[in-house]
């Protein structure tokens, strides 16, 4: 497959102001007739042909200006038509088989309904078209089909007509007045019911809102609807963005490659991000739904009204929209906890990407398959990069920048450069050097040291940006760091400040300290960097107990634990040193368990140990087995050391009745955390306690938390709980997904055997991405199972990739990065991982998706 390069961009020679589509819908055969108005693009080099992309289409007929023609030719899957004049009307008829579409790109069948997914390049699987984001058209669509099978017919924009036809058929006509690229096209046809409501916009327009689901799912749609209204309100208040159609439809489908899709006026969602009630969804599920509903809604401006010129600019809409949804969720759920969660995601998903063979800048320079670039780097690091601009400008100046951006580029296909320039002009920042964040990959490392002499504290900083594939040498980048210096006696600091490290090295002097201050740095995680410092242990204990920046407090706790575990893994700890290390952790941990001024939600965060993935990142070459053992041992030690405190805590939070308010949610978070430690410390007595929590639960958060703990233990209670859970929720796919995940992700010594058995379970299928991910993503993220020393885990994952690739390449390719980490794993396992990548690479007929990921991972 060819490599596509950012530098090769050229505008399309034609514009297509209007597109008319007629769909004759059927599950096995759908006929599509498209009528395109085509005119020369004055801003592009002229061409005597037009290239219309296609993928797996059956061409029925072509006519130009009303005359059937056969002068067309094919170039691979693309259709090439000769066009001699300045403007033409082109009509193309094609036929497709949605029932056979297992890739879930283009038009496909899911549970008897028809739906579409076009981003990035799925529209070409529906009809021949210049399937690129810089070709914007208004769409008028007529849908026809059997009324009994497809009572509801939905498309982008507003419904302009509908009616009955002969033979039990009916039709609907839709018009979307906003010019859009083909990737934002959507249609849905099926037997659906709606939760309907209204939102009145800031200018007083009423918008009809619908959340469409299958009949039985209606009672679980209220949270999605509430989330949508909150998002609409928030975007008006925070970014001055108003919705621009009279209708907003959301449709939930159970077969979906990712979370959701922001099609204009017709969002298509994975059921996972729509359906929730206390009995079937956890608090985390509720939050994820709120976040994803917001994200897709915010795309209406950051993505749809202003779209991307080409797919290299993906972070323009994704990074910015992730930042917008993060800020929204901070406002809804509390800033501190949300920030900690977002940083945890960045570190466990993006940092490993940035330090591995798949590292790429947030604005990539080349790709073979764009689906492979919907990454944590483009999304989450992209959001961090824009957040840094916001931190440097301040929220108000930043808003002036985004206002200017929306204003300047409304209705256009823009670039990341356009965005940066708008922020520069609107916010009054100089971002010349800052642009490096768009072009350089790799997580910068910042080495921090403090000297103290004669009342002066000197902070010295040194940055290095590690080499990444194709980028051996890097330039220093501007790194904004919020810092504070604490007085040890009073526990206060004299105010925080934002410093910008924009050279390879920098020294800053702070006067007037009667004794060496305690440094708190990268507060709020102002920069997505790895801070490296050898802070005295007592400083970390100090900060973990009292830093007034919640993120920094969490960070100090993490650093304390990471430092201890890394030292233990280095093998250099004497018994005495181990005791000293544990004692420091215990001091901080004890303060966290008992501090009355902490709310439970924050307590729950602070109690979490750094993830195994994050620990692996701290080591140049990691031994997953030993990391797992050390981490579990620390958990067990804390569980024993704090046994009675944890029991008291668990009793206290267990008495809090279920509700969705903050304190009750915090209580549930702490409840399961406490159980996790108790189970590590004393499995037998904790099993009883976990069973009680499981059996007595009146909500999914408690039930799933208890089952997670039980799934890691041996014995009858484990078996009973898993069986009970399965029988209770049989037939509810989203909950059965959890059942698969809990077992695949468990700390149970035989987890790998459980995964093998589950892959043969009658409820397992490769056809449903949620189910595949529920088993195998959990497994690939379960280090002690996946990294079993004999390589069995690697074989299992490679087998999965090979059998999934012909069915659903996009989802198959998502599993490759787990094997691609081999360079950072100890040599014995590394060789086994590499061998599995080579086995995949040698397979015939590999998809472009998997081929690209495997070759990059080996390269
Ligand atoms: N824009 C879509 C992602 C499409 C992924 C295509 N492989 C969802 C989102 O980011 O909102
Ligand atoms: Zn998005």
TrEMBL record:
GO terms for biological process: proteolysis. It catalyses: Release of an N-terminal amino acid, Xaa-|-Yaa- from a peptide, amide or arylamide. Xaa is preferably Ala, but may be most amino acids including Pro (slow action). When a terminal hydrophobic residue is followed by a prolyl residue, the two may be released as an intact Xaa-Pro dipeptide. It comes from the Bacteria. Keywords: Aminopeptidase, Hydrolase, Metal-binding, Metalloprotease, Protease, Zinc. SUPFAM superfamilies: Leukotriene A4 hydrolase N-terminal domain, Metalloproteases ('zincins'), catalytic domain. It is an enzyme of class 3 (hydrolase). Its EC number is 3.4.11.2. Residues 224-434 form the Peptidase M1 membrane alanine aminopeptidase domain. CDD domains: M1_APN. GO terms for molecular function: alanyl aminopeptidase activity; metallopeptidase activity; zinc ion binding. Residues 21-184 form the Aminopeptidase N-like N-terminal domain. Residues 442-533 form the Peptidase M1 alanyl aminopeptidase Ig-like fold domain. Its cofactor is Zn(2+). Residues 538-858 form the Peptidase M1 alanyl aminopeptidase C-terminal domain. Belongs to the peptidase M1 family. This is Aminopeptidase N. It comes from Erythrobacter litoralis (strain HTCC2594). The lineage of its organism: Bacteria, Pseudomonadati, Pseudomonadota, Alphaproteobacteria, Sphingomonadales.
